[in-house]
Amino acid sequence: MKILLVRLRLLGDVVFTTPLLHGLRRRYPHADITYVVEPSAAPVVADNPHLTDVVTVPKSTGMARIRGDLATAMSLRRRAFDVAIDLHGGPRSAWLVWASRAPMRIGYRIPGRTWMYTHAVDRPADAAPRHSVRNQWDLLGPLDVGPCDPERDPVEMVESRDANARVSQLLRRAGIEPTAPLVVVHVSAGNPFRRWPPEAFIVTIERLVRQDPSRRVIVTSGPSDTAAASTISDEVRRRLGELAVAVPAIPEFDVSELHSVIRRAALFIGGDSGPLHIAATTDAPIVAILGPTLPERSMPWRSSADFAEGVDVGALPCRPCRQRVCEPGDFRCLTRIGPERVVDAAERALSLWRPISK
Questions:
Q1: Which residues pair with residue 309 across a beta bridge?
Q2: Residue pLDDT, tens place only, 37-55
Q3: Cα(15)–Cα(255) distance, rounded to whole angstroms?
Q4: What pLDDT sits at residue 242?
Q5: pTM of this prediction?
Q6: Separation in Å, CA 169 to CA 145, 165, 240, 253, 301
């Protein structure tokens, strides 16, 4: 059997599809499984042991996109897939699945696109209190893969050896010893509805360092908010004074490097964004700061043996929301989460850390 999977973006959403790769490989151990993805999220599935091939399609616009997609569709059609699954439901992914001409084409039941599939699956509402992995897993229903379970089918990402070497060099240059408790704090998200206030991050990092000056904190941000990490880490260093060495200035990591550095961490702290779910592919303890999204939908999907604690504001009339307009206008699902709650959760996680022997 030859199976085609299409999920072009985003980072966290591609991470959420990786349990499906494990499930498909278990059900069809001899299948040829190909994954189509855009370059920004390709590192998530690169070298995945359950995949036969990864096809990267550029994120382009206009005529360049039309020409590129036509060439991709022709290439996919020549490979004669038996099954094609649209893991996204967007217009581009739906068209690529349809254009593959696979006899069995599976996707979500979405007005205007359902006709492209031979098997349509109901799609839960975006804000429904149901995990995104389970929503994706519904698409495997027609293939008789069976139920999903984070203990058996966690999210996965293979570490890049090259990225690992680069990270080792960066940490040595920053004076971070392997025996130091390393905390990775990701301070941005793809939209303002998921960004905890900068001052809250600043207070949290300062308290963690003052509690144990041997800790080293790496502050990261993403392409949607590139200045956030430097702005926050600069202010933390100013407040820490002689303890500022605990928050070294390190260049931003690419996706593979971020995965590698989180694997070494005693703790990851971040909001509901791609890096949170990259962290879930490691065994690093996690403190997740959840704003408009519910823990039932967005908490790390992995073994219960790995520490993961969500911090959220609790019930609000406007939560969850579609993240288009903040009805109260004050982003209260984030601004009402105090640093002390995140610090308390972080200390619980860090209490489990044990130094690595030299």
A1: 287
A2: 999 999 999 999 999 999 9
A3: 12
A4: 97
A5: 0.95
A6: 43, 6, 26, 13, 30
**27-31, 191-195, 305-309, 343-347: range with lowest mean pLDDT:** 191-195
- Residues 218, 113, single domain; the answer is no
- Tell me how far apart the alpha carbons of residues 342 and 203 are, in angstroms, rounded to a whole number: 10
pLDDT in tens, 295-324: 999 999 999 999 999 999 999 999 999 899
- 273 closest CA partner among 19, 48, 10, 90: 10
3 state SS of 243? helix
| CATH number, position 258 | 3.40.50.2000
Q: Distance (Å, rounded) from C-alpha 105 to C-alpha 88? A: 13
Which of 112, 143, 174 is where one domain is finished?
143
Residue 45 domain boundaries: 2-143
Closest C-alpha among 105, 8, 91 to residue 56: 8
How far is it, in rounded angstroms, from Cα 328 to Cα 25? Answer: 46
pLDDT on residue 358: 44
State whether 197 and 138 are in the same domain. no
